[in-house]
Amino acid sequence: MDWANVAKQVIGLGAPILGTALGGPLGGAAARVLAEALGADATPEAVGKALETSSADRIAQAENTWAEAIRAEAEAVRGSVAETQATIRAEIGSESFLLRLWRPFYALELMAECGSLWAVLIYGFWIGDMKTINALIGATGLLVSYWGFRFGVLGVYVSGRTREKVCVATGQDTPGVLDTLVKALTGKGAKPVTVTKK
Length: 198
Description:
Elements: H1 3-12, H2 16-22, H3 27-38, H4 44-53, H5 56-93, H6 97-127, H7 130-138, H8 140-170, H9 177-186
Helix pairs in contact: 1-2, 1-4, 2-3, 3-4, 3-5, 5-9, 6-7, 6-8
């Protein structure tokens, strides 16, 4: 027996959140919660046997414990996101010259680097300087890694700067991917569904 089989049992016994978690990346933590609620060792065999004789109340207790753990984790992430957003807003309102302009200078300096390399490369081709061209070709791996990192930082900057401008214009921060995930996990972003009878 493995955790995939246990997950099917748990879902069949009315604990879909915990059962789904057993088959995912949080399976180890979910297994400990389930084993503790059933009073069994945290192994697939022991938990599987305990499930056969456990009451529905114990399964429901394990489901509730797991849901509370996920909710607590989501709230912790929400707090971290809120602190990050507060830092961004403080930076926007800062009168510090360095805090306001370091990212534009970073982008301009990176553009100057790229332009300089292309100028050297084109000049090397123009005059037939094979020594310089071969040196640049030999450094391709290093340059790709270096500029991949630099442009990644620039991409984060561009995305963050857009969010900052929206925040200044609207007075509210636009939710990022992490914030959207937190809202989905805690159920605070869900809208009620209404069913109308015809």
